[in-house]
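Re: How this chain folds, sequence and tokenised backbone to follow
Notation: Tokens come from a learned vocabulary of local backbone shapes, not from coordinates.
Start of record: The labelled sequence and token lines come straight after this line.
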Amino acid sequence: MTRPLHPPGFAAHTNSQSADVQNIDAENRLHDSKKDPTGMTWPTTLQDQLPLLLVLSPLIGFFVTWGANRFEPGLVRPLAISNLACTLVVLGGMEWQLEADLAANTMAIRQAKQESSAISQDFDPTAEVYRKLARQRTARLAHHGFVMDGFNLFAVLTLVLITHGVIWQTDASQVGERQWIPMLMLFESTASGLLLAHDIRVFLFLLTVSVILMSLLIGLCGGAMRRQHAARFLLAQFCGGGLIAMGLAMLVVAVPWMQIPDSTTLPAVSYDLASLVQEIQKWGPRNELSYQYQSEVFPWLMLLMSAGFAIQSGLFPFHAWQVRLLSDLPPLIAILFLVGSSTACSVGWFRFVLPLAPEMLAPFDRWLLIPAFLGAIWGAVRGMALVGDDRQWRERAAFILMSLKGISLMGAYTFTRAGMMGSWLMQQQVAIYAVVMFIAIGSSRLQFQEASQAITVRQPLLGRTGWLLFGLALFGLFGSGFLQISELFFQSLSLTAAVFLIGLSLIAIGIRPQFEQLSGRGPVGHEPAAKSPLSGLLILGFSVAIVVSLFPAWLIHQSDPEFARVFRRFESTAMADSAESDSGER
């Protein structure tokens, strides 16, 4: 006895959702009517206009601060800070829009579940609703250069706050605000556009501009070796960016080359991410595309993009230039470099790889796992061996940061959407802890003098307290996020245990000497040890660590329903999509 093609009640369920399908088709026709004959779609809705306004807001601040320098230099800093309020208002509007979309999608899923209560358990109405929502979202986002979603909302918010924090704490009396603050505003505009880019051409263009601006910032106030550091940064970013651009070019150009049997139409060349992914996923369930993509194109594409990402992000074994930069740059410039460049690189990687079919990446997972694991071990060993003056402490912090990056990239071992999304969350958490760390061990004001003239003696208590708080923050990452990590590595218990042990060893490196110094049981250096209220400090550190560790996951949960569900849902939804496609072909 053959199994029926559809479960009982499927026709009733289809009829009950006919109104939803008609509404979606009507919105798609309305979207098509707004298209320009050239293929572009003008931002006629609030959801399309808000990302563009977020990019234009710092750009307007750049022109305002640049003009104020010529007529009233005293207004430069107040105008720059006031621009933060305008940008935060736009971000608030985006969050409100995403919350409205989340509520509408949740209501649609709840209604579908209520209407399909009589259907067999083999049929999943949630997957059907998610497929319709995905098609609607793809049609709405086609041919738009900037898109805001839960994937980049947290990254943009962090970039905006850190940039204006650097402006607020900058002492520009030596160089002049004419060269510094307007350039920061311009970098904020280009970096925000880079994080919001949904078109491959827009992404590559803004990446090039932001790299040039960051190199100018490093060359302006990067210490005694600022020219050498700017040259190293520019060379590493352009080499890595060139490899990533070649990989993206192969991705765009190779899609029309796919010879799919029994197909009347072939995919067209597209630079829009939504349209490109739609074409790939349309033929994804058919084994011909997956086989040809892996055998002819994908090994070279994966190799190029992996090498470019490793060079840009300073991963093992391409970490020497980044360690030198973080060891010599002023603290605030190092913070801006970490948040701007590192976040932009990770967004570029996960933005253009996450939507692709994860099964295509499965044969090449060890290409990224091996350098990530070696980088985690090497960074932990070097960080444990270094101890001494302020520069060695910062070099130690840079190696620990490299180790944390390697640990976070291990989340992509299985190359599922769950692993890659969890890896993205951990990347954002690592950026937060790096910012806290460099604020704690560096000065609170940005110095523009040469290194020989800007040497100041800091109170060791500030550095020790900062390292203790940083260690507690690490404990919060690997403690409160342990269930999340277990979810990512549920297929490999030994790998989960290894990641957790590496995290505990890094915590011991950061906490033990500082705990002894603060409690008066160890050597302090230039001043006698002083007693400290450790009980209140521990409670505060644990509380802040837990809140900060869970904030990115909560924000994405509130912003994008696609990533709000349990991570295992992606595999079940993908299986449902594949099953329906196969049944439709039969």
In short: Residues 44-585 form one domain. The chain has a mean pLDDT of 62.
